[in-house]
Amino acid sequence: MTWNPVxxxxxxxxxxxxxxxxxxxxxxxxxxxxxxxxxFKPTLHYDLIDLxxxxxxxxxxxxxxxxxxxxxxxxxxxxxxxxxxxxACPQHTFQILTKRSERLRELGPTLPWPSNVxxxxxxxxxxxxxxxxxxxxxxxxxxxxxxxxxxxxLENLPLxxxxxxxxxxxxxxSARPMQPEWVDSIHRQCLRSxxxxxxxxxxxxRKDRTGRELHGQTYDEMPLVQCAV
Length: 229
What we know:
This protein has six helices and nine strands, in the order E-E-H-E-E-H-E-H-E-H-E-E-H-E-H. By secondary structure, it is α/β, with parallel strands linked by helices. The chain has two domains: 1-9 and 19-114, no CATH class; 127-229, no CATH class. A seven-stranded parallel beta sheet has the order 1-4-5-6-7-8-9. It starts with a strand and ends in a 19-residue tail after the last helix. The mean pLDDT is 96.
């Protein structure tokens, strides 16, 4: 499931260049969707903050698939209210992903961190590995990296305190290629640090043709915690 109390975002690094959420928002705007009247401009949806409370059956919920909860346009009080909703819904597992790791680290001590909140940062190449250090400073039970789209090598990752690493190539129009040796290197680093390794896709313009096998097998490892489903 996805839960989008915020929609829209601003680009901050090369991982944002071909943003899938931006393409989808433009499409929804053209279709007349009320939620996307502002296109991809950051927009707060106060009426959606309590939505997970209505879902009684346990679910894994990706928070803000169409935005970034920690971007500057989202007030601190709004972020805290989102966390309070997650705290009030222990039956669900919430996964949050941000590129604004500095703000995550800054606000982290002011937020509740229930065990059902998994916190991650995007790490697309070696220019943004400082996001990992910021992530390691927050007290989430599960801390994870999303190396997707992986657009450059990532050597010597500081994986202490990181529980899960997701790797995937960029997909869609103008997708930038991902090199196999980049994936192999991250996999070896995960093995050394005991971080779970999840290989999502090779990507490309036609990701359905490239699949998600690495050396003839799929990697679907998950962090060693009890999930809500």
